[in-house]
Amino acid sequence: MQDGGEVLFLDGVGEVVVSIGRSGLSLQPLHPELVSSCWSSITLQPKLENKIKFSDVYAIELLDKGPICGPWNTRTAIQGKKNIEMHRFVIHGITRTRKRPSTWVPCEYIFGHKDLKTCKNWFERLMACINNEGNRPKNLMVFVHPLCGKGRGVRNWDTVAPLFDRAKIKTKVIVTERAGHAYDTLASLSDIELKALDGVVAVGGDGLFNEILNGILSSRYKASYPPTPEGFGYFESDENCEEQIRNGLNCSVRTPDSASTTFPGNSSKCDDHEPLLSTSQPTVLEIPSQNPSKEPCTGDQDHLVSFPNDWFRLGIIPSGSTDAIVLSTTGERDPVTSALLIILGRRMSLDIAQVVRWKSSPTAEVLPTVRYAASFAGYGFYGEVIRESENYRWMGPARYDFSGTMVFLKHRSYEAKVAFLEIPNTNSLTASADDVTGAQPLQSRHKKSRKIICRTNCFVCKEASTSGQNSEDEITDSSRKICENSKWVWSEGRFLSVGAAVISCRNERAPDGLVADAHLSDGFLHLLLIRDCPLPLYLWHLTQFTKKGSDPLSFKFVEHHKTPAFTFISSHDESVWNLDGEIFQACEVSVQACRGLVNLFASGPEV
Questions:
Q1: Pairing of strands 139-144, 170-175
Q2: Could you please report the per-residue DSSP string of 532-597?
Q3: Where is the composition biased (Polar residues) (predicted)?
Q4: Pick the catalytic residue: 56, 206, 272, 351?
Q5: Which of 71, 155, 357, 464 lies at a CB distance of 3.0 to 4.6 Å from 521, suitable for a disulfide?
Q6: Residue 339 buriedness (CB in 10 A; 0-12 / 13-18 / 19+)
Q7: C-alpha of 560 from chain center
Q8: What is the radius of gyration, based on Cα positions, of the chain?
Q9: Cα(421)–Cα(524) distance, rounded to whole angstroms?
């Protein structure tokens, strides 16, 4: 439906007929011959389109009476332009460029009319339309890391905070004072307090996001442990494949309720954690009243928050060293774009890896500890780089390059066994230990399959995003279907690294990421096993990640398996894992992909 339209003055254009439709505002210049292309060069003003979508409008404001400019053209530029004093209102929206469609740029349309009542009427009508966009957040908790990226966290929040104010979004801003601050704050929130929020935003890097993720899920996600191969032996009764199938991909005896879920706040620092000031003072929170858009609670049970759900979202305003999660989910490492995605309430499901450590060292007793990762879990080379970098924190982000070089030159390999669930038709690339010699061809002879890259409205991820999964039982049903046709496969030997990518892990050093065709919400991990090989070959493999369009996983000493779960066992005394940049000591772990476990303020990279 569309109204008959009304004539308003649009700054830089002149008189336009404006009408409200179901999905946006239609504009028709009365004198299109006077509308010059120069209008698109005016600061903050986009190229004139005939429609402004409500989904692209993040704020509307009434302005004081002021000047409205007529159309810009050569004649008025020579003769001089006369501004007209009018009552005004402004529509704040977004625009994109063809060269960088993933980057969102704020723009504004200033409308004027000689009658104040007319302007107020348009303002109220448009505000009603915007308020009907029900997915937009009203209350957010924001954690700002003050030292990440050499202070970029505070600067970036100062840049985007006015956008949230303009959109009338309430923000509770907490500047972190120590490692683990965000985790402790969120883990201590009651479900009633958490339900009063529409989401939590990290102004930092992947490490701060990981801390927030674990703080929210540690006591609220009640799924069982990942499946393990027969004979793994850490359960109170034998579990065979039939019993695992009967319980989806989850073990039926022990659950994370009985496991340790502590976060190493003061001992382990993430890739964004500089030496923060420690504090013993608890954070005092003033949580706004519960969002009236949510259904009223009728009892204590209704206040419980569980995951996955359809309303709570996490956001990131990139300010870290690599920002792989933001680059993989939005396509841009731009704080303004990320802020606008949050304000406009974009939503997509994101897979999360559940990591269970059984033993921290070969001689340690069995003590299950649960952690979660959103982008990557890596052992060997990946873990050693993070551990080595802790000695050079004074170098800032450059410590990763230095530490990576030091670890690479040591060229250490590790004896390990890995068991993974093999799913038919997942195009795993495998190589036996006997194939990995300097005399063998450098790349695998496996036929390459066409890669399907995850983008906005990805059909692979769409099923999880639109299926309405909002309970653990539904995830278990989905897992059961996968498990029915799967089998455990063992791979053992000496490995330079073992890694599991949840998403593509794109970053500025690796434009295609670790796995170019990894999807954001398909329920799979990409297990990367790098077998021991000569140093020059390993260097060749690593350099391929820096080249867009290359295939670093095609070498014969590289195994790539697409799997929902795997188990890792090592006898190394100081086995260290890298979870989203967090150090995690473990010699025996089980990992599973939790499909669409959380929602993100994102929509995927644009095509």
A1: parallel
A2: ---HHHHHHHHHHTTSTT--TT-BTTEEEEEESEEEEEE--TT-EEEETTEEEE-SEEEEEEEEEE
A3: 256-268
A4: 206
A5: 464
A6: buried
A7: 23
A8: 27
A9: 11
Q: What are the tens digits of pLDDT across the range 416-435?
A: 999 999 988 765 544 444 44
- Residue 495 CB neighbours (<10 A): 26
In the chain, the amino acid numbered 226 is: P
Give per-residue pLDDT as tens, 133-169. Answer: 878 999 999 999 998 877 899 999 999 999 999 999 9
Rounded CA-CA distance 419/243 in Å is 18
Residue 220 near residue 305, CB atoms below 8 Å: yes
Q: Which two tokens stand for residue 389?
A: 């970098």
| Nearest Cα residue to 339 out of 218, 236, 201, 459 | 201
Q: What is the pLDDT of residues 293-346, one digit of tens each?
A: 454 444 455 568 888 888 899 999 999 888 999 999 999 999 999 999 999 999
- How far the first Cα of the chain sits from its last, in Å, is 31
Count the neighbouring beta carbons within 10 Å of the beta carbon of residue 50. Answer: 11
Hey, how many other C-beta atoms are within 10 angstroms of the C-beta on 170?
A: 16
How far apart are alpha carbons 294 and 558 in whole angstroms? Answer: 49
* Spatial distance between the Cα atoms of 276 and 598, rounded to a whole number of angstroms: 28
Q: CB neighbours (10 Å) of residue 301?
A: 7
Rounded-to-integer distance, Cα 389 and Cα 400, Å: 6
The answer to whether residues 395 and 592 touch, using CB atoms and an 8 Å cutoff, is no
Q: Where are the beta strands (DSSP E) in 288-347?
A: 313-318
Cβ pair 39, 31 in contact under 8 A = no
Q: How far apart are CA 227 and CA 249, in angstroms?
A: 5
Q: Are strands 139-144 and 199-204 parallel, antiparallel or unpaired?
A: parallel
What average pLDDT does this structure show over 39-49? 50
DSSP state of 423: -
Lookup result for tokens 């995830």: 475
Question: Six-digit token pair at 402?
Answer: 């230095």
Concatenate the DSSP letters of all residues of 473-522 into one string: HHHHHHHHHHHHT-EEEEEEEEEEEEEEESS----SSSTT-SSTT--SSS
Coil, strand, or helix at residue 89? strand
* pLDDT on residue 393: 76
Residue with tokens 């009967």: 246
What is the CA angle 245-465-565, rounded to 5? 35
